[in-house]
Amino acid sequence: MATALAKATDRTAAAHEYAARIEHVSKSFDGPAGPQLVLDDITLDVAPGEFVTLLGASGCGKSTLLNLVAGLDAPTAGAIETPGGRPALMFQEHALFPWLTAGKNIELALRLRGVAKNDRRDRAQELLSLVRLEGAYGKRVHELSGGMRQRVAMARAIAQDSQLLLMDEPFAALDAITRDVLHDELTRIWRETNLSVLFVTHNVREAVRLAQRVVLLSSRPGRVAHEWTVDIEQPRRIEDAEVAELSVEITEQLRGEIRRHGQH
């Protein structure tokens, strides 16, 4: 299963030099005092197979940018390209349909993709195996723990067969131990499938643990304030000395951005 996914992603990636291209993107929303600028002149590429984390203070526009890349909203200025097709999006909440089983939730994504009915169950089982939930096909959402629900949501996102996976703080609501386990699982799945990942978080150590590149957005309006290439061998642990050291450096930059914009 993982091999098949990796080959499919490799073929798609080979045809494109980037999984996402964000060029001079700005976004404004109407407010009581007129247009409110949320994102200002964002330029960012995500390479095929690259794992990028978007980091910043609350309200800096991280989720807004992710929604623009997902095609859920349009930028006020600039352009966004995802040449591999529509990205898959995974939210902080699992957004599973409670009246469907874990397997049927995944099958729904497969059906919308046009996978033949006779093939959907086997594909759903393979995806559950990928996220290490063998035997969970027939379980209802209320029978699953929070971590298991997020694994199913991850499998459903991968079922969309997109080159680019967008993740909006998907582990923020989980306890520390479950989140730690899912960091390991996400790293494993990313390496096995060669997906491109754009991951939003406000947790500095999570950003450093997962990413090849960390992009810091300034406080509103969101601009690219700084980028770091993370040259730390995977798999990483949240408590690793190198992770901690880089996290301290990034945290200082983040605090500086918050102070500069007068936020507390």
TrEMBL record:
- Domain of life, per lineage: Bacteria
**Every ABC transporter domain range:** 20-246
> Could you tell me the keywords of this UniProt record?
ATP-binding, Nucleotide-binding, Transport
Pfam families in the record: ABC_tran (PF00005)
One GO molecular function term of this record is:
ATP binding
Q: Does the keyword Magnesium apply?
A: no
Q: Which PROSITE patterns match?
A: ABC_TRANSPORTER_1, ABC_TRANSPORTER_2
Give the matching PANTHER family.
Answer: ALIPHATIC SULFONATES IMPORT ATP-BINDING PROTEIN SSUB, TAURINE IMPORT ATP-BINDING PROTEIN-RELATED
Q: What is this protein called?
A: ABC transporter ATP-binding protein
Q: Which organism is it from?
A: Streptomyces xanthochromogenes
